[in-house]
Write a structure and sequence with these properties.
Elements: E1 4-8, H1 14-25, E2 28-31, H2 32-42, H3 45-54, H4 62-76, E3 83-86, H5 92-104, E4 111-116, H6 119-133, H7 140-154, H8 156-163, E5 167-171, H9 176-188
Parallel strand pairs: 1-3, 1-4, 2-3, 4-5
The structure holds BIS(adenosine)-5'-pentaphosphate (AP5) and magnesium ion (MG).
BIS(adenosine)-5'-pentaphosphate binds at residues 8, 10-16, 32-33, 36, 53-54, 57-60, 65, 87-88, 90, 94, 125, 129, 137, 146, 176, 179.
Length: 196
């Protein structure tokens, strides 16, 4: 198993680059945002709770989010060669929970890819996506809130993973393919890198 965290602000390209990583390395993708949006679309009780946070650009409480993640890991693990965690962890307690959860399963996070993009470009990308996405959080007020939450609560994870020697900063502006080639170069240099 090779487990990767794809990390970055809202709109930094986590979903875009995850698609390419899946195709290239055959890893299994878990996007917590997508899991929550599927619950909202299905009209479940969890979806109703999630919507009340997502539409305001706030984070879902850690306890709930950790349970959702653990359930996804266990559901997908039998057929996975490794995971791409997209949008999780987003807080230090989530990172600690992920570490513990993987340890209990004889696993670990091998590498963290941090996509770094200026706020101005993030806002531009998300407003543009909002014209077609139908996402309740792709509007200026919510985007500003998501960025605030990212800077206050999520960005400290860069130091957390840097201290673990796992954080790799990748400039996230420019062509999607060029960004991907920097990501795959970083992954390929890892001693436990998955085969292509
Ligand atoms: P989530 O779904 O994770 O959203 P996000 O982090 O806000 O990020 P996005 O999905 O908006 O952006 P992305 O980085 O995937 O970029 P993308 O590739 O789409 O979370 C949504 C909400 O769910 C959270 O706010 C929270 O409420 C809740 N939630 C989720 N996980 C949680 C957790 N762990 N704990 C608590 N709450 C949680 O790209 C963006 C746009 O830019 C696209 O249109 C794309 O085409 C374009 N683009 C991509 N790359 C480039 C490029 N190189 N150049 C130009 N345009 C590009
Ligand atoms: Mg995404």
């Amino acid at each position: 198993m090779f487990n990767l965290v794809i990390f970055g602000a809202p709109g930094s390209g986590k979903g875009t680059q995850s698609e390419k990583l899946i195709a290239h390395y055959g890893l299994t993708h878990i996007s917590t945002g997508e899991v929550l949006r599927a619950q909202i679309a299905a009209g479940t009780e969890l979806g109703r709770v999630a919507d009340s946070y997502i539409s305001k650009g706030q984070l879902i409480p850690d306890d709930l989010m950790v349970d959702i993640l653990a359930a996804e890991v266990d559901r997908l693990r039998p057929q996975a060669n490794g995971f791409i965690f997209d949008g999780f962890p987003r807080t230090i307690p989530q990172a600690e929970a992920l570490k513990k959860m993987l340890e209990q399963r004889g696993e670990e996070v091998h590498s963290v890819i941090g996509l770094e993009v200026e706020d101005e470009e993030l806002i531009e990308r998300l407003l543009k996506r909002g014209q077609v996405s139908g996402r309740a959080d792709d509007n200026l007020d919510t985007i500003n809130n998501r960025l605030k939450v990212y800077h206050s609560t999520t960005s400290p994870l860069r130091d957390y993973y840097q201290q673990e020697g796992k954080y790799h900063a990748i400039p996230g502006s420019g062509h999607v393919d060029e960004i991907f080639s920097k990501i795959s170069g970083t992954i390929d240099s890892h001693p436990q890198a998955p085969k292509k």
